[in-house]
Design goal:
seven-stranded antiparallel sheet; Bac_surfAg_D15; Bacterial surface antigen (D15) domain-containing protein
């Protein structure tokens, strides 16, 4: 799976808003104040690339004894690479790019056997600041 997104903020209120690159929906890396303005900008481009592979594709484990009940459908592994760049009015510089890579585990479940639900365990490493970050997330994936 892959995603490419970009944006630009303009208009009279452009100085009030910025894009933020770091986080689960952006570049998955540890939030550090040392990155300063590399994380924010009125313009941005971001790409996320994932390779998802089944570990157990037909799990079908039903937890009837819990409320709400869960139906675990499948269990996937994930390898990913994230790259993003944010800038203001100046020309963008590739050396200001933020990037990370990592691995993850994803459980596809259903609540009350009807509503899709995803549990994600992700480990990310960024050579930009030589830090690692662990994410536990639930909800949809891109």
């Amino acid at each position: 799976a892959s995603r490419l997104t970009g944006g630009s903020i303009s208009g009279r209120d452009k100085n009030m808003y910025t894009y933020k690159l770091i986080g689960y929906s952006g570049v998955r890396m540890r939030r550090q104040d040392e990155l300063g303005e590399l994380n924010y900008g009125r313009n941005m481009v971001l790409t996320n690339i994932e390779w998802r592979f089944p570990i157990v594709s037909d799990l079908n484990y039903y937890m009837w004894y819990m409320f709400p009940d869960f139906l675990f459908r499948s269990f996937y592994g994930v390898f990913f690479v994230d790259v993003g760049l944010a800038w203001n009015d100046e020309e963008p510089k590739l050396e200001n790019s933020l990037y990370s890579y990592g691995v993850g585990l994803r459980f596809h479940t259903f609540i009350l056997q009807t509503f899709p639900f995803s549990l994600n365990f992700i480990w990310a490493y960024s050579p930009v600041n030589d830090k690692t970050e662990f994410y536990f997330l639930f909800g949809p994936v891109f």
